[in-house]
What does this fold into?
Amino acid sequence: MAIGAARPAIHRRQSGGRRQQYRYRNRRQGAAGRLHAVHGGINERVNATLYTDLNFSFVNDFAAVAGIGGTPFVLVVTPSFPPKTIPEFIAYAKAHPGKVNMGSQGIGTTPHVCGELLKMMTGAGFVHVPYRGSLMPDLLAGQVQFYFSPMAQAIEYVRDGRLRALGVTTATRSDLLPDVPAIGEFVPGFLAIGWYGICVPRGTPTPIIDKLSTAIIAGLADTNLKARLLALGIEPRPMTPPEFGKFIVEETAKWAKVIKFAGVKVE
It folds into this structure.
């Protein structure tokens, strides 16, 4: 699809701050109007604070074009874990400090910082257990008690009873697990979603941004595309340039507070 002067330059998702340096190394070299497909996720916002040696600023070096969709997460527990609701979970963690283990794929990953956000907002205490490989076998065996899982990864485990879902991280209940409450129903203001969106280098002419945004948002109205996104665990959440830009700034500030609260550091 050719839109105005924009030229496609799709960048592959790479996790980790130093790999993101490579990912965005060409931001000053590329011409304005070059289209960047960005999977921001929570890590995009976390890395802005977590890494002090990044050679770019996502907020300052890029202009928002359109938000595409959000990736919900779900707090799942092993079935033998006593709490069956979010209030029970919080009360249990407070009553058993240091006895409740939370698994994640590593320090600063989305599951990790989701847990730190919950800890910051509730005062619940639990131990972070980072994994290099899959944590699912230990979660199913009860070696770790809970995990903030991408919904697409956990949904079959929840449906067949191997895991119990206590709450989703979206602002309201998710269509993917409509019987599972939002954590925010019990912890007002709790929200933690990954996101997909489109940005271009700062300085791209406004008419180009507007033309791109209009085309992308119109495409997201397509029923077949919505179905494909949902099948991938992505809930369509179209946002205009001002909406998406505001979202990026606010979320970056929010996760900076979480990182500082938790004292998260990477080696």
